Amino acid sequence: MTDQVLRLEGEESNLSSLGFWALPKESRDRAFARLRSEDPIAYFDEPDWMFTSDGKGFYAVTKYDDVFSISRNPTLFCSGRGAVSIPDLPPQFLEFFGSMINTDDPRHGHLRKVVLRAFTPRRIELLEERIEELAKSLIAEVATKDEVDFVAEAASILPLKIICEMMGVPSDYEKYVLDRSNIILGALDDEFLPAGKTVEESLIVAAVELTALMEEIGKDRIANPQDDITTSLVTASVDGEALSASELASFFILLVVAGNETTRNAIAWGMHALDRYREQRELWFTDFEAHSSTGVDEIVRWSSPVIFMRRTATEATRIRGVELSEGDKLLLLYGSANRDEEKFSSPDDFIVTRKESRHLGFGGYGPHQCLGAHLARRELHAIFSEVSKVMPNYEVVGEPSYLFSNFINGIKHLSVRPNSSN
Ligand code: HEM
Fold it and tell me: Is residue 344 in some structural domain?
């Protein structure tokens, strides 16, 4: 393997360095463009700043076609060996984070089936009215202010409330869920890391606390089943058996965290993009419905809120001439694939009418393709529909405050003047 190990020089292109993830997104995008053209399956040592370590580095998969084909070949590139994070997860983490996202078929398919029904397009259509009502009231409230943090007042609330309602989490616990999911996906960022705690401790405490919430709701749902996902989880029979305590905990955590962190950032990035590309805003908002489907997907492509998922080679193989051994790790870099100049013209530009290749922001169309994609699209549609009606001339004030993370491409705060005259 060492013959194949290629390195790009310097911090600017070193995905293992913590400093790389502190660079502005434009600089990181330039580094990914360089990787795509010079070293599309580049090897990096294991980062020395992760919450756990197994000593193994990874290959960064930066081209669209490779991310797509690896995602669709789970026999050769699996999810269930070690984890889909950079380091393999030790047992105390697997207890809370060893959910279906870290498993392979047939077990993965059986687990996914337990909740699949709640996320089908038909089922999401039934939620449409609720999503629209919420979006309407949030944007109406935002529009009464001179200046707001759009993330706090709208982008974080809609997806959080909807996933909590789907799971059966009482509304008093929404903030509790938000704070803990911020730690789980944002623990590298000082704003979310609890003072005096290590990343490792903080992750475990947040997971234990979310598990306690799930257990409380689950106990009630066993006695009084409801039409919610927690009832589906606690009453499920998979391969003839109920889900184990750790499967229940990790499933619940996966859904509440994935259901609110990702769409929030897509909404925030969409607001930022439409401020930066004013002519695209005008084009979209002049005939909202005509461009809504491509506009919403362009937000997800351009921002790619999930930076990567890992796969592990199950046997020796070769990609673009690079020899891989069994057990080698590959990071599927969705944001890089979504800027691949062989697939998208002017890939760095935000173009609401873009109809080219299907983007990979929700994954590479394999068995783990995002379960919440229909839901996320509905939420984005609802928010931007209201923005187009109520505050079409809004203005972003100053620079967004970005999340420091190598996994979530996030915006923590976005100051917006809803009724700008600019
Ligand atoms: C714009 C918003 C979202 C983005 C960009 C996004 C992105 C992704 C990506 C890249 C994956 C990995 C796909 C793969 O490995 O092939 C994924 C998986 C997943 N997403 Fe999303 N997601 C979003 C919203 C949501 C929402 C609202 C939910 C609701 C709960 C959700 C639930 C999940 C789940 C459960 C998985 C794992 C599926 C499996 O392992 O079978 N996501 N998502």
Answer: yes
User: Cα separation of 299 and 381, whole Å?
Assistant: 11
Indicate the pTM of the whole model: 0.96
Domain count within the chain: 1
Domain range spanning residue 263?
2-417
Ligand 1 proximity of 370 Cβ (cutoff 6 Å): yes
**355-388 tens-digit pLDDT:** 987 999 999 999 999 999 999 999 999 999 999 9
Place of tokens 């609890």: 194
Mean of all residue pLDDT scores within the chain: 94
Choose one of 110, 262, 267, 359 to mutate for the ligand 1 pocket test, by most ligand atoms within 8 angstroms of C-beta.
Answer: 262
Closest by CA to 145, choosing from 420, 421, 422, 402, is 420
Question: How deeply is 229 buried, as exposed, middle or buried, from its count of CB atoms within 10 A (0-12, 13-18, 19+)?
Answer: buried
Cα-to-centroid distance, 234 and ligand 1 (Å)? 22
Cβ–ligand 1 contact at 364 (below 6 Å): yes
Question: How much distance in Å is there from the Cα of 371 to the middle of ligand 1?
Answer: 5
Q: Is 422 within the bounds of a domain? A: no
Please, what sign has the CA dihedral across residues 387, 293, 281, 359? positive
Write the CATH number for 96: 1.10.630.10
Q: Copy the structure tokens of residue 332.
A: 């599927």
- Of 9-18, 79-88, 190-199, 249-258, the poorest mean pLDDT is in 9-18
